[in-house]
Amino acid sequence: MKASIIAGFLILSSPLAQASDLNKRQSELQAIRQQIASEQQDLHSSSQQRDKLLQLLKRDERAIGDAAKKLNQTENQLSDSQATMKKLNSQEADLTKQQAAQQQVLAKQLKSAYLAGNHDYSKMLLNQQDPATVERLLTYYQYLNKARISAIDTLKQTHDELVKVQQQAKQENERLNALAIDQRAQSKQLSAEQNQRQNTLAQLQQVIDKKASGLEQLQIEEASLKRVIEQALKAAAENPTMDGLAKSSGKLNWPTKGSIRNSFGSARSGNVRWKGVVIDAAEGQAVKAPASGKVIYADWLKGFGLLMVIDHGQGFMSLYGYSQALLKEVGDTVKTGEDIALVGRSGGQNQAGLYFEIRHKGEAENPAKYCR
To answer: Where do transmembrane segments lie in this chain (predicted)?
Structure first.
């Protein structure tokens, strides 16, 4: 009883805490808006405002990632629970049918025993009937009795199994209903976080609306990614046992289904070019590891949003940006085809998609060289 009360309190307190954090971020956004309205729009103040808004965007998108990850886990549990419920319903139907058939067999045996009960065994012996006939009858009655006992035992066992399955089905149904309630609450929280993020993003775009400011922003983002790559290379050097991607040329699957929006090497802004590809895909769609490896970075990065880096060994690594949620953490080992993230719009993107890079010894390579 005490455990259920505590569990209930935790369930209730979690949305309250999330709402409190959301309200705090909304208040901070409003304060920044007022500051922008009251201050002169010189370069220094714009830079400060941009940094503040980027920090707020980072918190917004991390909150979206947490909410989306929880929703994804709940939906997977819901799917598993529905499959279990279907299996239990099938078992219950089979056992009910089996029980009915066993009852019919037992009824026939009882009827045979009743009809055979008209014989008086002592009278047969006293009347000095043929001993062989008496022996055959006794053997027949013993067989009927054993068959009847066996049928009763089998029916009892089937009944016990049926009761057990019905209890399991009831518990699974209760779990299913609880998961459905969680799913609705988490969907609502995710929607609230996405609305807050849109408000922050709209304000951020006003601050970095100028072309020069946008180019500066891209250069800052590239510098941030370069530092992450350098850190990743150091981490990868400590784990040189994996095979890399050299033998996987043209054999890997793309990490998610969709069309290429921005291709490798195409112009991005000024002299800045795309060092990976952007794949158009639906928000929330699964991102799968094209090859096995180990997660060496999983966090929010300016311009790339929720970013994951996987070490594949021999200096090869793959990067996944703009994610709605990261489903793996640093240190996790991933297998080929395993879900690692969800497609999103983090990093201030207006359109859902996946940013995907493959690097070898720190240098970006065309993912199309490896993915079919």
So the answer is: none
